[in-house]
């Protein structure tokens, strides 16, 4: 007998992770429209931006403008990524209720991503977590490349557990393990989760999968079997890390929701409406997205099926 969670929580990351690699800049107006439509579909957790250097990530240059024009809604959790103390202060000034703070389990990626060693990035992350919590901001602390690194290959499970434990010492609200390079496989997911849970205990644990090698949804199912019920997804399967060559998008929100619903797992998301949002957003970016279910839906609709 396979036991799966009755309901899964989805955090939509298309506005941050999804857009950060896109060369065509999306206007603040289009971002606001997208947020409204995502919420109308039933999404309740939306990562809307990152407070980073706009010269390095031009798509996030409107972070303050977007936040200032965004209407806070009851029951909706907006969040943003931060990498530095300056980023935290920017988030605080914008009244951001939750921030994400990540360290990499790969020395090479850590230096490419933040120009810091793992130890230096960890020290900074713990300081940021404490300051954010003192300011009343919720914190999602994460470990990037938790399932392998495109530059270094295999990442020791012990290193992932060690970093998770060190982050927990700063008392974040949640720990997130990210398959930044998209190297994870279903058996590995179980092994890492079992080890990390030995240190995280009752602290909520979420997962952030990329679909670089086509194993994203298989990894979701593997995590579901382990009782995980919180995942990051990106509309259309957009995404990728600017500091990892060849890194492709996150698991597509609509593909993930479709799989979950077909297995009887609730998400609170209107799949048909979500597909419509994805297909419309393709027109904004002027290209076809990697997601599968949206295009199957469009094809069947065109055939009158």
Largest sheet: 8 strands, parallel, barrel
Give the termini distance in whole angstroms.
35 Å
Spatial strand sequence of the major β-sheet: 1-2-3-4-5-6-7-8
**Poorly predicted spans:** none
The secondary-structure class comes to alpha/beta
Helicity level:
40-55%
Note the run of SSEs as H and E.
EHHEHEHEHHEHEHEHEHHH
**And the CATH topology?**
TIM Barrel
- Report the mean per-residue pLDDT as an integer: 94
Cα gyration radius (Å)? 18 Å
Q: What is the CATH architecture term? A: Alpha-Beta Barrel
- Cα shape: globular
Number of domains: 1
Identify the CATH class.
Answer: Alpha Beta
Q: What do these coordinates show?
A:
- With 305 residues, the protein is an alpha/beta fold.
- The chain has one domain (9-303): TIM Barrel.
- It is 43% helix and 15% strand.
- The chain has 12 helices and 8 strands.
- The chain has an 8-stranded parallel beta barrel, surrounded by 7 helices.
- Helix 11 (271-285) packs across helix 12 (293-303).
- The longest helix is centred in the middle third of the chain and has 17 residues, at 118-134.
- The model has no long low-confidence stretch (mean pLDDT 94).
Annotate the secondary structure layout.
Blueprint: E1 9-12, H1 14-18, H2 28-40, E2 45-51, H3 63-69, E3 77-82, H4 85-93, E4 98-104, H5 107-114, H6 118-134, E5 138-144, H7 157-168, E6 174-179, H8 186-200, E7 205-209, H9 216-225, E8 230-233, H10 253-262, H11 271-285, H12 293-303
Parallel strand pairs: 1-2, 1-8, 2-3, 3-4, 4-5, 5-6, 6-7, 7-8
Helix pairs in contact: 2-11, 7-8, 8-9, 10-11, 11-12
